[in-house]
Amino acid sequence: MNVLLVNTYDKGGAANSCKRLHMGLLAKGITSNVLLRFKQNNWPKSLCFKQPQKKRAFLDKVANKAQRILRELKLYSDIDGSKRKHQHFLSQRNRNLEMFSFPNSDCDITQSEFYKEADIINLHWVANYLDYKTFFESNKKPVVWTLHDMNPFTGGEHYLEEFLGIDAAGYPIKRNLSDEEIKIGNENFGIKKEVLSKVSNLTVVTPSEWLAKEARESEVFKNVKVHCIPYGLDTSIYAPRDKKYSRDLFGIPEGKKVVLFVADSISNNRKGFVFLKRAFEQLSDSNLVLCAIGNKNTDLSSVENAYELGPIFDERLMSIAYSAADVFVIPSLMDNLPNTVLESLVCGTPVIGFPVGGIFDMIQDGENGFITEEISVNSLVETLQKFLENPSCFDNVSIRENAIKKYDQSVQSKKYIDLFNTILKSAENKI
Questions:
Q1: pLDDT digits (tens, 9 = 90+) for 243-296
Q2: Domain annotation covers residue 79
Q3: Within a 10 A sphere around the Cβ of 45, how many other Cβ atoms?
Q4: Structure pTM?
Q5: C-alpha closest to that of 77 among 68, 85, 86
Q6: Cβ–Cβ under 8 Å, residues 43 and 34
Q7: Residue 289 domain boundaries
């Protein structure tokens, strides 16, 4: 069996999940390759996609040279009208929202040698990479699409964010879509629905039951088989480390209770850091320390007992950060199956989160963490206080053992191999 995994980047949460599955497949002897749009890291068996160059006729070369000269003189733009409209739309969009992407690109994945050699295609996070129309009209191979967010079945949003901002009482503010957002979203949704309505060799996999439900109920995937296979990770890398050593490494004082927050950017609205920041300020406990990992944000400089650790890319160092914490807090307003929660649980560190999305799949309230009553600052304060009153109420060893049973890399890869084999066998029977 030859599997091709396709992902836009080789960094970020979705990329980490893609890589972990890839490594798990390789460990089980499966021929697995990864086709990336942008390649920065040296993953084994990975390749950066390059569009094959078409042979140009003489007149094409002349026209191309003329366009280049006019472009230098600023008398010509090679950005067509639709691209210009897309760029304008994105430039006007609120920067605190998750990204928005369109269902078209200049890439034709089916032209890659990796694609041609594969028996089955496993799409992952392919925004600004997969051209829906080109790929699904050309592709004849079985496709498994691993969803890392909602984008494949929305009009462009990666999460259909219901809230934007926080009010004075500590509750999220209902978001209102603009007429332009609705118009553009409907156009993109129409393209996806039309293209995918003609596809019969597609299977969808989601990491969380929440995303599986959303996919099944969507107009795009309502007639597609949807399976739920949680993410996996290397539990030898993510493991409990000595707490004193871990805190010394980050310069965290002894005798403190440490609350940890992790995100690519702590200014991301969906990640809800502002709720944790306000909750921490209300607690005003001198024995409490807040550590934030992610791109730095000056808003945190006003908070006492707060440590900005910056972005951390090394996985072993991340396991040390989880080990330094007493509790990991994920105040996301929407989320799938966050890798950060998996990582924390496998390191034996309990988690507190809002009652949203895949958080319900991961946190068993009172066993490996707490789920708040609602999305609000007050509810987060009450839950943090409940933990701080009895921080030893969780068994760290048990948290890790139960997490390994569900999220070890080998568990995930076996489920994918079984699914791939079932799909390929079914395809053979149809021939």
A1: 999 999 999 988 899 999 998 877 789 999 999 999 999 997 888 999 999 886
A2: no
A3: 14
A4: 0.91
A5: 68
A6: yes
A7: 243-407
